[in-house]
Amino acid sequence: MLRAVATLVVLAFVLAAAAGPVQAQVGGPSVPPGLTEPPPEQAGRTDFDDDDGLSMLQLGMIIGGAGLVLGTIAWFIVRDAHRVAPVGSKWGKKAKKGGAGGGGGSRAAGGAGSNGVGAGSVSARSAANAERARERQKAKRAKAKARAARQQRKQNRPR
């Protein structure tokens, strides 16, 4: 049934296309004669004849504007990257403070207050406490990050 309808549609288009030239030949005197003379050309000059393209100033402004847009995008990307970068990185302030251990005179590193007596023992204890607090915060952030990653994987599982 569908094949028959398609065949009839194609046949109708072919017949309609063939009937067009036949009607033009039968038209007789009512058909106007074809144009034999070309349209007249304009004798005057136009403003576009001397167009040499972009001037150096325009080209410089385009290149400068593109550089400004790309520079602004790069600045935003770097700014956002610095915002989310970890604070205590391997090459950050901790590496400069006290050598390999990063404790800088704490009890674990065998510094001035290693036995609890001496001029630097109070500051060594407070520095050690601050270091432990930073480590606890770091572990807490790592745990929260792992939990968020698990949740994301759970949400992305195929169903």
In short:
This protein is mainly alpha-helical and 159 residues long. It is built from 4 helices and no strands.
Oligomer, anyone?
single chain
Q: State mean pLDDT (0 to 100 scale).
A: 75
Helix content: 55-70%
Q: What structural class results from the helix and strand content?
A: mainly alpha
Order of helices and strands: HHHH
Largest sheet: none
Runs with pLDDT <50, length 5+? 94-114
**Rg over alpha carbons:** 42 Å
Overall morphology: elongated
Count of strand segments: 0
User: Please, how many helices?
Assistant: 4
Beta-strand residue percentage: under 5%
Q: What is the straight-line distance between the termini?
A: 42 Å
Features:
single chain, 159 residues, mainly alpha, 4 helices, elongated
Describe this structure in words.
The structure is a single chain. It is elongated and about 115 Å long. It has about 160 residues and is mainly α. The longest helix has about 35 residues, at about 120-155. The protein has helices spanning about 1-25, 55-85, 95, 120-155. It contains four helices and no strands.
Write the layout of secondary structure elements.
Elements: H1 2-26, H2 56-84, H3 93-97, H4 121-155
